[in-house]
Amino acid sequence: MSRINFEASSELEQTINELVTLTGSSSKSELLRRAIALMKIAAEAQEKGEKIVIADKDRKPKVELQIF
Hints:
The protein is an alpha+beta fold. Helix content is 50%, strand content 13%.
């Protein structure tokens, strides 16, 4: 397994820490692995012409995500 290092602003680090808590991730590394997996799924879906939508509890679309 390789190691990747990068610099993050204090705002990004705060967001990462908040997401670790919100997602129940055990570490920043786990959070980033999950985020990359989600991004891969989203990019592949968009490449196929599929849409990624956030819907409310009544399944009414609220936001359509555009990855690229």
